[in-house]
Amino acid sequence: MNIENTKAQMRKGVLEFCILSVLKEKDAYTSEILDTLKNAKLLVVEGTIYPLLTRLKNDGLLNYRWEESTSGPPRKYYGLTEIGQTFLNELNSTWTELSDAVNLITNQKQ
Q1: What is the DSSP letter of 108?
Q2: Can you tell me the distance from the alpha carbon of 99 to that of 88, in angstroms, rounded to the nearest whole number?
Q3: Phi, psi (5° rounding) for residue 29?
Q4: 8 by DSSP, 3-state: which?
Q5: Residue ranges per domain, the chain?
Q6: 3 state SS of 5
Q7: pTM of the predicted model as reported, rounded to 2 decimal places
Q8: In this predicted structure, what is the pLDDT of residue 95?
Q9: DSSP per residue over 16-80, as a string?
Q10: Angle between the N-to-C axes of helices 3-22 and 46-58, in degrees from 0 to 180, rounded to the nearest 10
C-alpha cells in the first residue's frame, strides 16, 4: 500500500470543506485561498483548485466578482452564497462528529 496516495486522498477529502471555510469571513481571490491553505500546511496546486472552485460555483455554493487590481490584471474574488453558507454549516457539524469519532478510536489504549 502506498502511504503517499492514502495521505493525498485524506487531504483531497477535506479540501472542499477547507476552501469554503476560508471564504466564510470574507471574499478572496485564488492566490489568497492558496496562501491560506499553504500557511495551514495544506499544500494545493493551482491545477487542483481552479476546477474545484468552478465546480463549487456551478453547484451554487460560491459566486464571484471581478475586481480591478493595482498590480496586474483584474482578480476574480470568490464568496459564499447563502446555499454555500448553509452547506458549510452542515459540513462543520459533520466534521465535528467525524473528528470526535476518529479521535475516540485512534486514541484508545490497547
Answers
A1: -
A2: 16
A3: -95, 170
A4: helix
A5: 13-107
A6: helix
A7: 0.86
A8: 94
A9: HHHHHHHTTTS-EEHHHHHHHHHHTT----HHHHHHHHHHHHHTTSEEEEEEEETTEEEEEEEEE
A10: 50
**Widest CA span in the chain:** 59
* C-alpha cell recorded at residue 65: 466578482
pLDDT at 6 over 80: yes
List beta partners, residue 79. Answer: 63
Domain 13-107: state its class: mainly alpha
- Cα Rg of the chain, angstroms: 16
- Residues 67-108: pLDDT tens digits? 998 888 999 999 999 999 999 999 999 999 999 999 999 997
CA 86 to chain centre: 15
Distance in angstroms (rounded) separating the CA atoms of residues 55 and 36: 20
pLDDT tens profile 20-48: 999 999 999 999 999 999 999 988 888 88
